[in-house]
Here is the input.
Amino acid sequence: MARGRSKQGGNRKRETRWREVLDAAAAEFAEHGFLGTSTGAIAKRLGLRQGRLYYYIPSKQRALELVCQLSTEEMVGGLMEIVARDGDPLEQLRRAIAFHMEWLGGRRDYCLTFLRERRHVAGPAGRLLADTARRYERLFEQIFRTGVARGRFRADCNPAQAAFGTLAIANAFGLRAQRRGAPLPPGTARWIADLVLDGLACGKARAKR
Amino acid sequence: MARGRSKQGGNRKRETRWREVLDAAAAEFAEHGFLGTSTGAIAKRLGLRQGRLYYYIPSKQRALELVCQLSTEEMVGGLMEIVARDGDPLEQLRRAIAFHMEWLGGRRDYCLTFLRERRHVAGPAGRLLADTARRYERLFEQIFRTGVARGRFRADCNPAQAAFGTLAIANAFGLRAQRRGAPLPPGTARWIADLVLDGLACGKARAKR
Amino acid sequence: MARGRSKQGGNRKRETRWREVLDAAAAEFAEHGFLGTSTGAIAKRLGLRQGRLYYYIPSKQRALELVCQLSTEEMVGGLMEIVARDGDPLEQLRRAIAFHMEWLGGRRDYCLTFLRERRHVAGPAGRLLADTARRYERLFEQIFRTGVARGRFRADCNPAQAAFGTLAIANAFGLRAQRRGAPLPPGTARWIADLVLDGLACGKARAKR
Amino acid sequence: MARGRSKQGGNRKRETRWREVLDAAAAEFAEHGFLGTSTGAIAKRLGLRQGRLYYYIPSKQRALELVCQLSTEEMVGGLMEIVARDGDPLEQLRRAIAFHMEWLGGRRDYCLTFLRERRHVAGPAGRLLADTARRYERLFEQIFRTGVARGRFRADCNPAQAAFGTLAIANAFGLRAQRRGAPLPPGTARWIADLVLDGLACGKARAKR
DNA sequence: TATGAATGAGTATTCATTCAT
DNA sequence: TATGAATGAATACTCATTCAT
Here is the structure.
């Protein structure tokens, strides 16, 4: 390729810079929202002038799509591994939650952007995103289903609801901690897993009392 | 006086129209976000031309503030009554959650707007809003604190965390149902209360197992 | 006429109200300028609602024209009498200046509006205004011309320039006092007349020294 | 450094363009007033599209402030030099008036804008402007005060009034000539100085006659 | 790789004016 | 005599995007 002097080196550098651009976009999107972010603000964060941004990304819209896709797809990949590995569903759930919390902490900007700004991703990209999100939730669902089937979780546990609820709780606590700027306290994942287990999977069904 | 009467009538009509304007704003804000909403869109929803809107509201910004303030303040009022009435903390929590879910259902647009768009309310109005939100959460906190003190909830229940978690779960389920356009299924509030009780207030603390 | 119950009474009342409207317009124009004045502001000053104004005036533009014309025409009338009356040009000038200062004080809003806002009167009305203003200046000019002809003013006094200068000085001092909110101090007109006489009409022509 | 050089060049070009923008704004403000000037009109004068203007100036308001500040501050600087240089107060006054007239001619748009539109500069910028204007007037005042102290001007000359009057006369004649589009006739400054000297500083006080 | 000039379209807000009541 | 609802046009300002250099 004419562009990179050494193909490898050039591409790697380019790739690196490209990630930096996405990081900057994610940071701005997380802080001010997609519509509240100007391309100038992203550029400024990178020490570039506005126009230059378009060398790296084709549009602000596309940047949002990429930010939303990148981490979600990696998250699905990671979670798949956990679910694929056999083991006690209860342990699996703990690991899954720990995994999820790690991402919330490590990729805060990407997660926040995905959670709050995905509404601005429409069309094919939006459908792709919705699909990825569904796959992620289904993996949690599967853990609950297995747990119920094996008698580890209580019989009236609704896997779909449990999966949704688990993510809601994990995200709420995970992002609350973020909002305060502090890293997640170490026991958080464990504590949330217990909360979920008691409330959604193992506790006595209250309504029956 | 003839004028007094006509003035009354005028004011009532004006007041009504004002609420309609806020409703329309809330609906648009909930659907497209504050920044994604143009004043023209609000006007269109009301069958007005854009400029006319400013006869009722001083600015889009102020409309957002009012939308965010109106329902939250009423919610605090309602919840205060529930908490003030004496009774079993467990029953109080159930009533509180039911009350909260009713608002999520009945004032969907206002609640969504508050939850997602309040970040765009800055300055004094923002501080007021934060204060109202804090008061609301504190009322839930108080229920948990009383429950722990009276031995109805488990000893290691952290009232602040429990209050936060309760709202996170209630909002997540309440608004998920909304997103699908359907009204909340009748048992939802009860079911969520059980979830919260098992997970946050009464279940065995897993970590100790 | 169908409109007034008693023609006389109705018209007089109407006439009065009409003057009040013009006064209010003049006051706003003087304070905020023509473009800086909204019809709502004029209406407010009168205790009316915006729309009602159009019962009295056909347009904001026309209101400006009337404000500018009214006092200038009366001023021309008054000054003509002074100039017509025979007498020492020096005394005439004193009287003319006193007359001018009285108007600046008594019709402050009208004078300010005329002086600063007449640029916004275009078309036939603008030409009429320019003509009236020219007639006014010419009357001063005439005093100087007579004074020179009769040997009361120095020979090299340029009547046109002297007239222009006289008005500039009178307006500047007259309106400065106004700006400070105080009524013109009693001796002002006399003092200004002396200034003008020394500087423009009687003093030794410096350039010759 | 290559960048340094290009930056220099860029800055100089930018600076130049910036002055052109202010010149255009001043021209429009002088012709149509601040409120009568649309940003589009300024842009058109520069051959730009409206939006582009905001690359050079942050707002129309700020442009007005800059137009008003720029020349007034330079004028104060120039006048200070004249007053600082020792010499006959009478000669000083002549120089000061000549200096003032030169500015009226050379920076007509800026001066007109300052004189007529400064009322639209409020807040801190307005206070700064008022201060600069006061300093300018005080410098003239000082000339008169010195002249009286040294017995060159008549004893009952009021320096503050004389300064105000001098500026009123100079502005009136200076801007009248401008309005007619012609440059100031050569002897004007001299002639005005004589007028001022006779009327304000040296003539016999008429009232005593 | 980077800059800055340029643009076109969009958006909130204001306001003179009209009209039915 | 007065009101309030309604409108259409204007206007300041922002911003994503392009392109010559």
Notes: The first helix of chain A runs from residue 7 to 32. Residues 48-52, 55 of chain A lie near DNA strand E (CB under 10 Å from a C1').
